[in-house]
Write a structure and sequence with these properties.
This protein is an alpha+beta fold. The protein contains four helices and six strands. It has helices at 2-14, 43-59, 90-96, 98-101, and strands spanning 18-24, 34-40, 66-68, 75-79, 83-89, 106-107. The protein has a six-stranded mixed sheet with strand order 3-4-5-2-1-6. A hairpin with a 6-residue loop joins strand 3 (66-68) and strand 4. Interacts with ribosomal protein uL14 (rplN).
Length: 110
């Protein structure tokens, strides 16, 4: 799991995602074990991040269960079952504030 989290973070960094945070939510929700949260600077950037992430993960044999939010690209969710990647535009990230909602989650450090 650690290697995959590091790979996801690197892929997002490669395409200039900002403020990447990894939360261990395994003790707080049954949705996933980890949330990866990142900020995009526009809808086009958000879509590019999601497309690149999915494309590169598929090259590794990892297919997302589903991807949501590509139409408006305010909040794109890439569901990898154990890991959910949330790609937000800045104002949407501030509005939904998942870091506050899951404030008791442990921040995952490399």
């Amino acid at each position: 799991m650690k290697d995959l989290l590091l790979k996801i973070k690197k892929l997002l960094e490669d395409k200039k995602a900002e403020d990447i945070v990894i939360l261990d939510v395994s003790s707080l929700t049954n949705l996933a074990d980890y949330f990866v949260i990142a900020t995009a600077n526009s809808p086009t950037h958000a879509r590019a991040l999601a497309d690149y992430l999915v494309e590169e993960l598929e090259k590794m044999g990892i297919r997302p269960d589903h991807v949501e939010g590509l139409d408006y690209a305010n909040w794109i969710l890439v569901d990898l079952i154990d890991i959910i990647v949330h790609i937000f535009q800045k104002e949407w990230r501030e509005y939904y504030d998942l870091e506050w909602l899951y404030s008791t989650a442990k921040r995952w450090e490399e």
